[in-house]
Amino acid sequence: MLSTSDADSAAAITAELEAAGHTVTIWEPGTPVPAEARLAIVDGLEQAVLAHDAPCDLVVLVELAEVPLFPELPRQLTDFVITPVRAGELLARVGHLATQPTLAERARQAVFALAVEASSDVVELTRPDAVIEYVNLAYERTLGFTAAEAVGKTPAQLVRSDAHTPEFFRELDATLKRGDVWRGTLISRARDGRYVHLDSSVTPVANRKGQITHHLGIKRDITEQIERQEALLEANRALEQARDAAVSASRAKSEFLANMSHELRTPLNAIIGYSEMLMEDFDAADQVHKDLVRIRAAGAHLLTLINDVLDISKIEADKIELAPHRFPLRDLVDDVAATIVPMARTSNDRFEIEVSPEVGEIFCDRTRLRQILLNLLSNACKFTRDGQVTLAASRAQRHGEGWIDLQVRDTGIGISAEQQRRLFQPFVQADSSTTREFGGTGLGLVISRRLAEMMGGEITMASVPGQGSTFTVSLPADRDHSRPEIRLGMGEGPRVLLIDDDPEVRDLFGRLLARRGFDVAVADSGAAGLELASRLVPDAIVLDVKMPGMSGWEVLSTLKISQTTADIPVIMMTVMHQREVGHTLGAADYLIKPIEPDRLVALLRRYTSPGASVLVVEDDEPTRELIRRTLERSGNKVTEAENGQVALAQVAAAPPDVIVLDLMMPVMDGFSFLHALRGDPRYADLPVIVATARTLDEQERRDLTATVQDVIEKGAHTRHELIDLISDQIVRLVDRRDAATKP
To answer: By CB atoms within 10 Å of each CB, which of 333, 467, 618, 647 scores lowest?
Structure first.
């Protein structure tokens, strides 16, 4: 852009510049400066001031007398030429400026420099010999060394931590010499002695001739993240050890008490028996007879307390066995009534029986049902004074089968809502004053509920303080609890145990899984499921969370305590997202209702397949560990490699069934690995699943599709979804392999 009042000078300058290949536009002061102008040549200081908003460099034609005024010229001033202009002088100045950065470029460079300085990540520029030429402010904040201290030295002289092997640095150097980007974690030692973990990428910088002149390092401090992960792993290990110790102690306690049954009961029975014999030798009015009555009563009370403790211990140790048989329920009601009537009279209570005519027979353990009713009725009499206690029995149809409901109603003191929530916990009574006034262990209701659950039923309650309580025992009328419901499929595949109280769910999924080749067993309650799991030791368990009596979470906890069933993968069925709860208790996976049949089958195939040998090639250690742990939980044998070079060596030593491959890795990336792998005829058909965070272009995607079995984009999925996709794909690949090898 040219502006001068001297027409002859303008013509001469234009001709000279155009002859050299430059484009010249004449500018009239006061009009907009052309946007494409690279350089403005103006005549005198006045026009220079008018052109001060031009987004370009400025050359001013001035007389010698105006030179002292230059400090007041606009910032765009790049050069000046004293008039009259000599031939070739202006052309030389313009030619020189054409090789320099433009004003806009210099502005961008200034902004870039500010951005680099303001970055929270460490930016480090070194020569190929590792000598530092530049570091930003984050370098000092992170490592404690100023730019003045760092420039001219190598990282090894400043921050070497000795945390890496010589081989590590040889691989890093080899990657950079090839012109590849190195990515990984560097551990540096800060000025204060701290070890700093840096998530790093180091990029070779080349000149126009392709010669590497510098290395640009971008490093992010992830020390806190690493420390949190290590603390979490340590906490998990401590929790697992504490849980194992608690489980072991609880099991030892329960087994000890269960085995002590004979030793504790025998002397007590002797005390009670001899007291009764001696009572016959004394008159009822005699003081000795009265003392013997007290001794016998105290012994009987102590025996009751010990029986409660032994019962709950045997339940916890899984040593209670049921002996069910069919009998008229009315006979049991009359038997229980004969025992309770004297107790009711002691409390001045009326005792009534209500038995519907259609109640008929029940198939269950008579002794255990009698124990439940006596416990509930004795509690009702204990907490009712001058009132009424009722035992009612009726029959109902629920879930397509007959059920017996036994209600114990009283008009006693009642129980508050807060107390009801704690009532079925071991060693808990309504409140501490109850223990002082009435005694007892607080185990009766716990034992009763667990016995009802073992027989496929449940105990529920309703109460109003001051008005009384109602406890309802609900039991299936005709179910054989010693042999829980079982139905086996015709398939030869893995055995699956389905535990659900809903008969429609059991029927639907039982038939579905049988058609898909699974050998299916079903149980209709938590207690029945536990018994079947211990007897059959299935390959997998599908467990409903919400069931009457024993919930799915309680069943899961019990399964994981037993050595027989602890390693069986359990898939929970729930209406809510409760992955963390399930994993904490030991669940392998979970499904949200309504359940997609294909998803259930896919999960079962994942956890019951014979497993595969899987090579995970991934440079990010946390991701690699998560994939490994998940795949191992599904029965796979997993080996790891942090880059393609290590992976090739492992494939040569022991070819896996499947490879899970990241693309962006140091030393040898995924593309180079695939090229080398497929170049060997032995591994041309070895299945590969690519899991990458890289944004693939169309050509890369086409190339990968022709080379690998699947491409999974990390950014499109959560970490758990990513692992699920990888696991499902491995199962499908193994199934295909097995089908192809069958005769």
So the answer is: 467
| CA-based nearest residue to 440, from 264, 343, 265, 305 | 305
Residue 92: pLDDT band (50, 70, 90) is confident
Does 95 share its domain with 125? Answer: no
Whose CA is closest to 621, among 78, 190, 71, 230?
A: 230
- Give the list of residues 6+ apart from residue 9 with CB closer than 8 angstroms, or none: 43, 61, 83, 84, 85
pTM: 0.36
Phi-psi region of 375 (alpha: psi -120 to 50; beta: other; left: phi over 0): alpha
Is 484 a member of any domain?
A: no
Would you say residue 488 lies in a domain?
Answer: no
CA dist 617 and 167 (Å) reads 19
Element (H, E) at 132: strand 132-135
Residues 6+ apart with CB under 8 A from 95: 20
Is 562 in the same domain as 622? no
pLDDT grade, residue 483 (50/70/90)? very low
The CATH number linked to 676 is 3.40.50.2300
Can you give the pLDDT at residue 587?
84
Higher pLDDT, 77 or 216: 216
| pLDDT given at position 616 | 92
Helix (H, G, I), strand (E, B) or coil at 526: helix
Helices (DSSP H) in 456-525: which residue ranges? Answer: 503-515
One domain for residues 181 and 196 = yes
- Answer yes or no: are the C-beta atoms of 731 and 602 closer than 8 Å: yes
The range of the structural domain enclosing residue 332 comes to: 325-476
Q: In angstroms, rounded to a whole number, what is the distance separating the alpha carbons of residues 474 and 243?
A: 34
- In angstroms, the CA 419 to CA 431 distance is 7
pLDDT score of 510 more than 90 = no
Q: Is residue 486 in some structural domain?
A: no
The CA-based angle 682-684-687, given to 5 degrees, is 110
Tokens of 210: 């392709």
- Is residue 541's pLDDT more than 50? yes
Mean predicted confidence (pLDDT) in 514-518: 80
Q: For residue 3, which phi and psi values (nearest 5 degrees)?
A: -145, 115
Q: In this structure, what is the dihedral angle of CA atoms 193, 196, 201, 207, given to the nearest 10 degrees?
A: -20
Nearest to 363 by CA among 278, 480, 266: 480
The candidate with the shortest Cα–Cα distance to 182, out of 148, 212, 210, is: 212
Residue 410 CB-density burial (10 A; 0-12 exposed, 13-18 middle, 19+ buried):
buried
Region of poorest pLDDT, from 20-24, 311-315, 637-641, 709-713: 311-315
Answer yes or no: are the C-beta atoms of 77 and 48 closer than 8 Å. yes
Q: How far apart are CA 619 and CA 105, in angstroms?
A: 38
d(CA 419, CA 18): 100
Question: Per the structure block, which two tokens stand in for 4?
Answer: 């001068």
562 and 593 inside one domain: yes
The burial class, CB within 10 Å (0-12 / 13-18 / 19+), for 610 is exposed
- What's the rounded Cα separation, in Å, for the pair 590 and 611? 20
Higher pLDDT among residues 63 and 71, named by residue: 63
Mean pLDDT of the chain: 80
**Which structure tokens are listed for 292?**
């013997």
Closest C-alpha among 732, 562, 559 to residue 634 = 732
- Gap between the Cα atoms of 388 and 353, Å rounded: 11
